[in-house]
Design a protein that fits this description.
mainly beta; four-stranded antiparallel sheet; three-stranded antiparallel sheet
């Protein structure tokens, strides 16, 4: 994986508390991008905000070794509540570029 970027994101209910146990979180960034960290998991029962209950981290890196061309990049975070309600946040976008060797 080539150099990339790291992100911290916060997931809370409307009162700033942890989402209910059973909430599924998925982070994806599209073709040619590897996403690692807190990217595909289900929340446990948490009472207080903080790392592992409302704050999570992930990193991205370019896996396309065949081109140095710039390409559009959009990161999508999907939350699915235990009742099945889905919320999508896809406003993290930019251009992926490789650094010169």
């Amino acid at each position: 994986m080539s150099a990339g970027a790291s992100f911290t994101y916060t997931v809370t209910d409307i009162n700033g508390k942890p989402m209910p146990a059973g909430t599924q979180i998925n982070v994806e960034a599209g073709e040619g991008i590897e996403v690692t960290g807190a990217t595909d998991f289900t929340l446990g029962n948490r009472l207080f905000p903080g790392a592992g209950s409302t704050e999570f981290n992930f990193s991205i890196g370019d896996t396309d070794e065949n081109t140095n061309d710039a390409a559009d990049l959009t990161i999508k975070i999907t939350l699915t509540s235990p009742s099945g309600e889905e919320t999508v946040f896809d406003q993290i976008s930019g251009t992926r570029r490789k650094t010169a060797n």
